[in-house]
């Protein structure tokens, strides 16, 4: 079961999300919070796999809570660090930048279709980050420009094999593992293996952060 925590200051929104998500037989809502401060506490206590996080809430905003949850590491009983899916009505660039900077694994708008929300939760639980289609490569490019890292002592991109670098480039184009496999005429498992090694080498934790890294390091273009 995928364990989910809902964070939104509106009870009716949380109730709606709970109803939608629990229609799926592989998703369980284990906790709810109405503000960011409580969300951080409950994330440690309940160890959800995915946190559906609102952005603007009284009593602690979602971006600050996202940063704490991601930085806090595993919760109870040594479980893995929760992945945060930012779910908001706002598609303004600044909110997207804030979510990416805070370490969110995905970003989706509240007016998405029910199946899109369920698919987003499954994808993040399975280790695949995502950004809503309304968020274009322009946003990623601008974020990468704003957050350009200092020159590293070691060129991380140079540590990648030619195949790993190519797969990261295809990922930055927005392709899925299956689409990359078809493009490069290899097995999907091969893509997953190469991508995992590339992420380990450059120090990124998910696909979204890997795309940002690709733009920052010249492996992708806007």
Automatic annotation (TrEMBL):
Modified residues (4-aspartylphosphate): 54
Keyword Phosphoprotein recorded: yes
Response regulatory domain segment(s): 3-125
Gene3D superfamilies for the chain: 3.40.50.2300
Keywords: DNA-binding, Phosphoprotein, Transcription, Transcription regulation
Domain of life assignment: Bacteria
Positions of the HTH luxR-type domain: 153-218
InterPro entries: CheY-like_superfamily (IPR011006), NreC/VraR/RcsB-like_REC (IPR058245), Sig_transdc_resp-reg_C-effctor (IPR016032), Sig_transdc_resp-reg_receiver (IPR001789), Tscrpt_reg_LuxR_C (IPR000792), WalR-like (IPR039420)
Chain segments annotated as transmembrane: none
Xref: CDD domains: LuxR_C_like, REC_NarL-like
Keyword Magnesium assigned: no
Stored PANTHER family: TRANSCRIPTIONAL REGULATORY PROTEIN NARL-RELATED, TWO-COMPONENT RESPONSE REGULATOR
Protein name in UniProt: Response regulator transcription factor
Naturally occurring in which organism (per UniProt): Promicromonospora umidemergens
Phylogenetic classification of the source organism: Bacteria, Bacillati, Actinomycetota, Actinomycetes, Micrococcales
């Amino acid at each position: 079961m995928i364990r989910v925590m809902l964070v939104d200051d509106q009870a009716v929104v949380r109730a709606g999300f709970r109803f939608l998500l629990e229609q799926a037989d592989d998703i369980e809502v284990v906790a709810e919070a109405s503000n960011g401060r409580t969300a951080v506490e409950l994330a440690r206590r309940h160890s959800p796999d995915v946190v559906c996080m609102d952005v603007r809430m009284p009593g602690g905003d979602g971006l600050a809570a996202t940063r704490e949850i991601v930085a806090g590491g595993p919760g109870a009983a040594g479980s893995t660090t929760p992945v945060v899916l930012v779910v908001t009505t706002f598609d303004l660039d600044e909110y997207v930048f804030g979510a990416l900077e805070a370490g969110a694994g995905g970003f989706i708008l509240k007016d998405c279709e029910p199946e899109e929300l369920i698919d987003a939760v499954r994808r993040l639980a399975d280790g695949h980050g995502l950004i809503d289609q309304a968020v274009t490569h322009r946003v990623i490019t601008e974020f990468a420009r704003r957050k350009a890292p200092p020159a590293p002592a070691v060129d991380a991109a140079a540590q990648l094999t030619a195949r790993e670098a190519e797969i990261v480039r295809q990922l930055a184009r927005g392709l899925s593992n299956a689409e990359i496999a078809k493009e490069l005429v290899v097995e999907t498992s091969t893509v997953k293996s190469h991508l995992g090694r590339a992420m380990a080498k450059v120090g990124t934790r998910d696909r979204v952060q890997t795309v940002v890294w690709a733009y920052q390091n010249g492996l992708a273009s806007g």
